[in-house]
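Dear U.,

Please find below the material for section 3 of the report. The protein was modelled together with calcium ion; I have listed the sequence and SMILES used, followed by the predicted complex structure.
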Amino acid sequence: MHMRVLIGTRMEKMAQAQILFLAAISCALIPGQSSLIETRGLTKGAANRVFTFGNGTYEISTSMAGWVQAKNDCRSKGMKLLSIESAEENNAMLEQIVLRPGDSFWTSGSDLGHEGNFYWEATGLAVSGFKYWAPGQPDNAQSGSEHCLEISAADNHLWNDNKCDVQHFYICESHPCEEK
Ligand SMILES: [Ca+2]
Ligand SMILES: [Ca+2]
């Protein structure tokens, strides 16, 4: 696993290195088994910017971007823009982002290229099984120009399709155990 130097405080870098290290160890110790590694708040009472769930590592961006830039930024970190496959994974995201009630977040969900068929760009798989759409969403509003799946602050962090060029924070995800 390569470590990436992040923009941030030294303490934050150390915290992330520690989490990645623990994630790597847990891969070795309990292969194939999900392990919830305790993460410590970088600031008490604030959302963790880097945290783990199961065998995944998640990182909330420090700045906002449109969906395409968000996707590319995650890739440049060796990660992928978030995909949410289960209620448990969704809850792990909510645990952090409810502490940021004013912020919406991009996921890798999109129906670009095939209106109405949402898929996770991170995995190429359809958004099926677990779904967390806000009531009436996705509605492809704004003259049919909403093609990217946001975790919407306006909808208590339920999902909404919005225009992909809207600037949001975003969450990158990686699974170092599986990507070996
Ligand atoms: Ca996922
Ligand atoms: Ca919408």
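For the text of the report, you could mention the following: The helical segments are 10-29, 67-76, 87-97, 141-144, 176-179.

Regards,
Y.
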